[in-house]
Amino acid sequence: MTRTSHNIRFLAVLLCLFSPAALAANDSGPAVIYSVGGKFDGSFNQSAYDGAERFKADNGSTYAEFEISSPAQSLQALRTFAQRGYSPIVAIGFTHASALATAAPEFPETDFAIVDMVVEAPNVRSIVFREQEGSYIVGRLAAMASRTGTLGFVGGMDIPIIRKFACGYVQGARSADPQVKVFVNMTGPTPAAWTDPARGAELTRSQIEQGADVIIQAAGATGIGVLQAAADGGALGIGTDSNQNGLHPGKVLTSLRKRVDVAVYENFADAVAGRWTPGVRVLGLAEGGLDWVIDDNNRKLITPEMKAAAEAATAGIVDGSIKVHDASSEGPCPVK
Questions:
Q1: Partners of 186 in beta bridges
Q2: DSSP label of 155
Q3: CA 327, CA 335: separation in Å to the nearest integer?
Q4: Nearest to 249 by CA among 281, 295, 314
Q5: pLDDT > 70? residue 17
């Protein structure tokens, strides 16, 4: 291969790999690499995007971004951003963990961050969440809203984080109604499980046929199909990660926000202020890493009793009087 043809090929790879924002003239500042599903998945990635956009609006600064279509693209994206001087580089989702473990030692002067996984390196900040705390709260709300005594949970990829999410949901539901039945289904064993709304809708319809009338999604872009099928089937949905109440006004009980937007914003802002540090940060209810949403789209669905019960549970989790099982580190869920 000639030098000219090699250069043309390399340029073509860059043009295919990065979005226009990533190819801006100023090759410095922060960057974000989304997980599969795209930044407009209406859920996990979109929360990260919202945080980056808020940073941009507040600071008048630009950032670079890239949307991977498969985990195989992660390492090249990390390396290319680092080579071009971006820092910190925030990787969204556990699928980047292996690639980041390889890239971080190669670029010791670059700051990296990852959401939803711990990567141990002196230049990596890992942000993880106590998802079970937030799902306990919305599980309690779901049981109080249910007319049939049967709930549903549709997860994305069958991984410990989603199992932890499901366990908290069941525990919260049982705290309101010890007899409540909860169906738990996962979409699949591979990252494709995050991008299959048709399969999410199919699982939701099956749960509705078995009596579920409140169904939560924890499935990324797949969850869009879950919420649509719930609305179409006369059930209430529960959104996650972003505020999804407005997708089907009056038919989404609430949304459990996992504040990925805050994680991204703080990484960018800390770097600008010169206070960025590596290490593991664990965010739960007490730290503001999770919350649930009441707005004009769902206000009529939340009774005063439900709101009071959710607030009491939140206070109990924060002060330690309510212990929510962590199925990812404490063994199998004690409730089914």
A1: 155
A2: E
A3: 10
A4: 295
A5: no
Q: Is 75 helix (H, G, I), strand (E, B) or coil?
A: helix
Longest dimension (CA), the chain: 73
Q: What is the DSSP string of 169-233?
A: HHHHHHHH-TT-EEEEEEEESSGGGGG-HHHHHHHHHHHHHTT--EEEEESTTHHHHHHHHHHHT
Residue 237 bridge partners (DSSP) = 215, 252
0.90 cut: is pTM over it? no
Residue type, 219: A
Cα 252 to Cα 214: distance, rounded to the nearest angstrom: 9
Task: Compute the average pLDDT of residues 266-280.
Answer: 95
* Strand order across the 252-258 sheet: 181-188, 150-157, 214-218, 236-241, 252-258, 290-292
Measured CA to CA, the distance from residue 200 to residue 80 in angstroms comes to 34
What is the predicted pLDDT for the residue at 27?
52
User: In angstroms, rounded to a whole number, what is the distance separating the alpha carbons of residues 173 and 166?
Assistant: 11
* CA contacts within 13 A on the Cβ side of 270: 17
Distance from C-alpha of 145 to C-alpha of 134, rounded to nearest angstrom: 17
Q: Is 302 left (phi over 0), alpha (psi -120 to 50) or beta?
A: beta
User: What span, in angstroms and rounded, lies between the C-alpha atoms of 236 and 231?
Assistant: 6
First to last CA, the chain: 60
Give me the phi and psi of 107, to 5 degrees please.
-130, 70
Q: How confident is the model at residue 111 (pLDDT cuts 50, 70, 90)?
A: very high
pLDDT category of residue 37 using cuts at 50, 70 and 90: confident
Predicted confidence (pLDDT) at residue 74 exceeds the cutoff of 60: yes
**Three-class DSSP category at 77:** helix
Residue with tokens 């971006």: 86
